[in-house]
Amino acid sequence: MDLLLKGKSVIVTGASQGLGKAIATEFAREEAAVFISSRSEEKLQKTVKEIREETGNNDVNYVVCDMKEVDQMKALVQKVVDKNGTVHVLINNAGGPPAGEFMKMTDDDWYHAFEQNLLSVVRATRHVIPYMKRQEAGRIVNITSSSIKQSIDNLILSNTMRPGVLGLTKSLSQEFAAHNILVNTVGPGKIATERLMQLNAITASQQGKSMEEIEKASISDIPLGRYGKPEEFAKAVVFLASFANTYITGQALIVDGASVKAI
Fold first, then answer.
1. Do residues 250 and 174 touch, judged by C-beta distance below 8 A?
2. C-alpha dihedral (16, 17, 18, 21), degrees to nearest 10
């Protein structure tokens, strides 16, 4: 299937590692003009080099951007437009907020999670919508979590912010449908990334168990019997963000190997 992404201008935020990197790599395979962002220039340089070498696509670039900084977010979009003329696709991705229990979270923790995981989506989307409206076409995919369908123990911040992104997704899909701007959200379940390993380490410490015990118990909850691969998650995202997708919008897709029980 031709995803109709060749030459399309794509932004993937939070993409120096993990799921963001996997998503950017799949766009590069489709010959899109890809810009990635994160706060670490060193990691971005390394990631761009690796994606170019792996895919053979040299039209992969980066912009250093802290998702919580308004001016940096605006500058990111402007740099992409200066080079590519427009933005066809936006992937809103940011690292998950810290794990922890409700009573241990401070106001600062809540404000940080709000800015990083919800307000950043609002701001990035606000900057790209004018270009998408002008060309009467655009695709936006917001990366959330399986917590939009089923809450996750010890992740109170994620359980609160991610459903907010889902509500935003649904509203945007309806407001901008007339301009052929399709907006969806994709939530990862247990995908084999550094983030998952960090959460497993926290659980192991709290329960006084080994990482091996925690991982075995974690995988036992997945009907497919294994963690997902980042590239498996990325392929689902890239399809929804492609121009082969012409009618799926306002939806929430969970990529989780059937581990979420909620409908």
1. yes
2. 50
Q: Give the model confidence (pLDDT) of 161-213 as tens digits.
A: 999 999 999 999 999 999 999 999 999 999 998 888 888 888 888 888 889 88
DSSP conformational letter for 66: -
Using CA atoms, how far apart are residues 251 and 239, in angstroms rounded to an integer?
13
Closest CA to 61 of 19, 22, 10, 26: 10
Low-confidence ranges of the chain (pLDDT < 50): none
Burial of 212 (0-12, 13-18, 19+ CB in 10 A): exposed
Identify whether the C-beta of residue 99 lies closer than 8 Å to the C-beta of residue 202: yes
- Please state the pTM of the whole predicted model: 0.96
The single-letter code of the amino acid at 30 is: E
DSSP 3-state of 19: helix
Q: Residue-wise over 91-128: b if at least 16 C-beta within 10 A, else e?
A: bbbbbbbbbeeeeebeeeeeebbbbbbbbbbebbbebb
Contact between residue 59 and residue 34 where contact means Cβ atoms under 8 Å apart: yes
